[in-house]
Amino acid sequence: MYDKDEIKQNITIEQMIDIVEALGASTPIVRSEILMIENICHNLPGESRGHKLYYYDNTKLFRCYTDCGEYFDVFELVIKTRKIQENEDWEMFKAIIWVADFLGIAPKLKEFDDMDADAFQFLKEIKALENKISKFSQKREQELKIFDDTILNNMSLIPAGSWLREGITIDTMKKYGIKYYLSEDKIVIPHRDINGNLIGIRGRTMIKEESEMFGKYMPLKIGDTMYNHPLSFALYGLYENQDNIRKAKKVFIFEGEKSVLLYDSYFGSSSNIAVACCGSSISSFQIDLLYSLGVEEAIIAFDKEFEELNSKEHKRNIKALMKLKDKFMNRMKVSFLYDSKNNMLELKDSPIDKGKDTFLTMFKNRVII
């Protein structure tokens, strides 16, 4: 069986971001341990007028500050979104299965011979829901809004000076369509699905005050159009690098887009096997994308999340990475670029931020699970 409370209490804030994006919300605004989310609890995706659905990580509860006006957990949010988006009345156990499947959590079932009637019926329900959950994920992919590429023609071709200084070349910026939005002082990062369709545009603000208030990366808004998309239903760089990944049967998974661009600049476009999940968690859908390309080894190259070995943050980080590994469910080998001696990276550094030599050293010494 699934332990409902255990699942809820172990959901990290990064995983919750993935969940609400999978349910149709754009990237939430993060305030310490609070997420500010579009009101998908009573609005269709894209129709919310604000971020009035709050998630409090300390209590693991949502609070809607508009129409709902109540507290509820992640399972109740799934039920609400199924009703508003599909007009389906899901029972609680279906919502639990959906969340568990999304997080890659296997049910704790009794031995078959010792299974009572209720447990056996529950197992049948799980099997029956597998196709429905799979179809839901496929439908979410199909429902990703495709934007008109011509909007990018209005953007400046002026290269981002700060990124040039960090080692990202002009050729790489051109390959990925990196531009600059002068009126808002933002680096423009187009996101595409595996077929090359424009499904979103993220902006990296260069304004310090805005960065501190809303975060460095946000969906770009031009006029009345918000160019957002659920980040957990795509991988940045997959469209551009899918042929290389198929040939190598390996993939580097970074957190941010900039790391994919640095990899391209260091090793060349013909050797780039990097993607970014745009967060610190990987969704089941993203794993499916990689599996469909024949990937045999996923190399996780996430940002450093601790300053001292054996600290609370260090132990929490190891636990989070082990949970991440479990989501792959032995479909491919999983390895990690990890600063195990605490002498390669600084806090929040990507493994590629310290240059090509440091990255290659970490790759050579990667931890294979």
CATH superfamily of the largest domain: Zinc finger, CHC2-typedomain
Q: What's the β-strand tally?
A: 15
**Could you tell me the radius of gyration in angstroms?**
21 Å
Number of helices: 13
| Straight-line distance between termini | 27 Å
CATH-assigned fold name of the largest domain? DNA Primase, Chain A
Mean pLDDT: 85
* CATH class category label of the largest domain: Alpha Beta
Task: Explain the overall architecture.
The chain is an alpha+beta fold. 38% of the residues lie in helices and 17% in strands. The chain has 13 helices and 15 strands. The strands form three sheets. The protein has a five-stranded antiparallel beta sheet with strand order 1-2-3-4-5. Strands 6-7-8-9-10 form a five-stranded antiparallel beta sheet. Helix 3 crosses helix 4 (92-103). The chain is globular and about 50 Å long.
Spell out the blueprint of helices and strands.
Elements (H helix, E strand, L loop, with lengths): L3 H7 L2 H10 L6 E3 L2 E4 L15 E4 L4 E4 L6 E2 L1 H13 L5 H12 L13 H26 L18 H6 L3 H6 L3 E3 L4 E7 L5 E8 L2 H7 L2 E6 L2 E3 L10 H11 L1 E5 L2 H11 L6 E3 L7 H9 L4 E5 L10 H15 L6 E4 L19 H9 L2 E2 L1
Parallel strand pairs: 11-12, 11-13, 13-14
Antiparallel strand pairs: 1-2, 2-3, 3-4, 4-5, 6-7, 7-8, 8-9, 9-10, 14-15
Helix pairs in contact: 3-4, 4-5
Give a quick set of tags describing it:
369 residues, alpha+beta, DNA Primase, Chain A, DNA primase DNAg catalytic core, N-terminal domain, Dna Topoisomerase Vi A Subunit, Chain: A, domain 2, 3 domains, 5-stranded antiparallel β-sheet, 13 helices
